[in-house]
Amino acid sequence: METFFNNIISSIGITDVLDILIVAFIVYKVLGFIRETRAEQLAKGLLILVIITLASKVLHLYTLNWILSGVMTVGLVALVVIFQPELRRALEHLGRSRFTNVLNGVDKEEAKRMVLEMVEAIESMSSSRTGALIVIEGEITLNDIVETGTVIDANVSAEMIGNVFYEGAPLHDGAMIIRGDRLHAAGCVLPLTQNKQLSKELGTRHRAGIGITENSDAMVIIVSEETGVISIAKNGNLIRFVDVKKIEKALLELYLDDERKVSLTERINMLLRGGRNAKK
Predict the structure, then answer these.
(1) Distance CA 150, CA 272 (A)
(2) 3-state SS class at 94
(3) More confidently predicted of 66 and 88
(4) Torsion-angle region of residue 200: left (phi > 0), alpha (psi -120 to 50) or beta?
(5) Closest by alpha carbon to 211, among 142, 267, 272, 163?
């Protein structure tokens, strides 16, 4: 037995270890992707279907095996259609560059000024119960979203943000896109989330804010028109009842953390721990 194991160990080379590690990493990422999306329940159903198909073959249930094999073949095509948003998000995440980020190119003093202006505007809109939907673009550009609105390309200021979302203003119903240190566009239309588990209290503005974060790495700040409650959306998750101090801290972390050792999602979760998650 000892000789057997020694032979196995001696036959394993560096490339074999590398091969195993790569496959393990891919499996880990795929499982993580399944758990974070609607695919979790589907994966369980597919696993049961595969087991039944194999069992029907072993038990020589030819008709059942033929039907199940056909269903699985057609099902693969159906999966691509049904889970197109999730697959798109996964491919965008895979192709996302980690070497260039428009946020890291913003001057630190300008970033601090921007954050103070944004916080001032958000606090004012929350007090006056002015609805707002502010999208801070990340590494994934939102050109297709920008095309649905109006390009402004202005300096970020509390007055400009307030004017855009002022009730009665032409662009107040849409989303604002902030790209780097510029207020890039406003009046944009965002995709609505298809998550059926969200609270019935959430309206179109919140569902749109969540929807864009399911398909990109953007961070969204939402101010409720009905209650003035401030929320943050990221990676399909919504954290409600956020105060302006935590908004300011999250924005400073976003613009000033050049090392970016911790993912944005983890930083926001740490900053806003104790906040109320809309999914619960």
Answers:
(1) 32
(2) helix
(3) 66
(4) alpha
(5) 142
CA atoms within 13 A on the CB side of 270: 8
Contact criterion met (CB below 8 Å) for 246 and 280: no
- Integer angstrom CA distances of residue 45 from 18, 27, 39, 72: 32, 18, 10, 11
Q: Is 253 in a helix, a strand, or coil? A: helix
Strand partners, 234: 219, 237
Q: List, in order, residues 6 or more apart from 216 with CB less than 8 Å away.
A: 89, 92, 137, 138, 140, 142
Helix (H) or strand (E) holding 220, with range, is strand 219-223
Q: What angle do CA 131, 226, 162 make, to 5 degrees?
A: 25
Q: CA-to-CA distance for 73 and 201, rounded, in angstroms?
A: 40
Cα within 13 Å of Cα(8), Cβ side: 5
Angle (deg, nearest 10), helices 158-165 and 108-128: 40
Q: For the residues 86-114, what does the mean pLDDT come to? A: 67
Residues 6+ away with beta carbon under 8 Å from 189: 145, 148, 149, 174, 175, 208
Tell me: the pLDDT tens digits for 12-46? 778 878 888 898 988 887 777 666 555 666 677 77
